[in-house]
From TrEMBL:
It is an enzyme of class 2 (transferase). GO terms for molecular function: ATP binding; protein serine/threonine kinase activity. It comes from Enterococcus rotai. Pfam families: Pkinase. This is non-specific serine/threonine protein kinase.
Length: 384
């Protein structure tokens, strides 16, 4: 099993595609052992890299069954992982505890150490390529962008990576190396902490902040120079967190969920949880957004009831209430992704900015048409 074979050493039965993509991963079952594997198509130029990957046996990386060439295509057969991606976990979680983030970062760095020791750079470390198995084991997956560092090159031959998580050098500024993966790890930590990219907002968690800042320095020389160096820094934060938790005496019978920030640790109350989950402006926890939200809500709560009160009849009061709701409240719900409904609309959930722009334009148009119809039906309503 040491070389790429033109004929498979094992025979498989294809079960079903795992995505809608052309040449996307396919779930297969090995005919003799009945084990499930994932069949993935890769560019032929990745042949040597995938063969190197096959030699690596590590609990935080998927095991590779074989690498073969079929009909001029390169295919990799790897273990089928039962679990969820980190993206799914982040989306369905209100917050991720600091201790959990540090633990998973250590697991992720273990996977990268194994890759880097063989000269491989992953180049696409992101939550979507990190899985947690049903047994709680972290796996770094998907090697479409994997490459080998070559000292004589100034830039990568093929520039790949995911915007937001990819390091600056992945866009042609320099050749990628192990430090490029560590940049992505820093971004992943920040997203796990506050669901934002570091360049937009940095986590103020005292046990994560410094790790993120150093890992995401623009100049690779100022980052951690190896996954082992970053691992040592994460272990230090892990020990500090454990020591801090041991000094905290919790009341018997009360479950305390600590949420760290730069100034204090506080328990998430039902009111705070309601604001963070459902009230636009409070869900991100960003001070400037919350300030604007408070000003806006005060304006609406003071202005709208006063206007309604001026109505002479009950029907006029009702029309004023509907008019104000459509004009001031409905846009907030539509454009702040209330209850994450944007995730269910293809254009608003598109990865390309152009498509998302079209989606929001249609959303604005729909709101204007709806408001126009309301005014037309009510013969101008209260604005007549």
């Amino acid at each position: 099993m040491g070389n790429v074979n033109n004929l498979k050493q094992f025979s498989y039965k294809e079960i079903e595609p795992l995505t809608d993509q052309i040449n996307g991963p396919i779930l297969v079952r090995e005919n003799d052992t009945k084990e499930f594997f994932v069949k993935k198509c890769y560019p032929l130029y990745l042949q040597d890299n995938l063969m190197t990957l096959q030699k690596i046996k590590h609990s935080n990386l998927p095991s590779i069954q074989e690498v073969v060439i079929e009909d001029g295509q390169l295919y990799l057969y790897e273990e089928f992982i039962h679990g969820k991606t980190l993206t799914e976990i982040i989306k369905t979680s209100e917050t991720l505890e600091t201790k959990m983030i540090l633990k998973r970062t250590l697991d992720l760095l273990e996977a990268l150490i194994a890759l880097h020791n063989e000269g491989l750079v992953h180049r696409d470390v992101k939550p979507g390529n990190i899985m947690l198995t049903n047994d709680g084991v972290l796996k770094l997956i998907d090697f479409d962008a994997v490459r080998v560092f070559e000292e004589e090159k100034e830039t990568d031959t093929v520039q790949l990576g995911t915007i937001g998580f990819a390091s600056p050098e992945q866009f042609g500024f320099a050749q990628t190396d192990a430090r490029s993966d560590l940049y992505s790890v820093g971004v992943v930590i920040n997203v796990c902490s506050i669901k934002e990219y570091p360049k937009k907002q940095l986590s103020f968690d005292p046990f994560l902040h410094d790790l993120i800042v150093k890992a995401t320095k623009l100049d690779p020389k100022n980052r951690y120079q190896s996954a082992m160096e970053m691992q040592a820094a994460v272990k230090e934060k892990w020990n500090q967190l454990n020591a801090a938790q041991q000094q905290t005496v919790e009341p018997v019978g009360i479950s305390k969920k600590a949420i760290d920030d730069s100034e204090q640790q506080h328990v998430k109350t039902p009111i705070r949880s309601f604001l963070g989950n459902y009230v636009p402006g409070f869900r991100t926890g960003q001070p400037w957004k919350m300030t604007l939200a408070i000003i806006y809500y005060v304006f609406v709560l003071i202005g709208l009831p006063g206007t309604i009160y001026e109505g002479r009849t009950m029907s006029e009061k009702l029309l004023v209430a509907l008019d104000g709701s459509i004009l001031f409240i409905l846009p907030v719900l539509l454009f702040t992704n209330f209850l994450n409904f944007h995730e269910k609309i293809p254009l608003l959930n598109a990865k390309k900015n152009v498509l998302r722009g079209i989606g929001y334009s249609l959303l604005v148009l729909s709101w204007l048409i709806y408001y126009g119809l309301f005014l037309f039906v009510t013969n101008g309503g209260v604005r007549k």
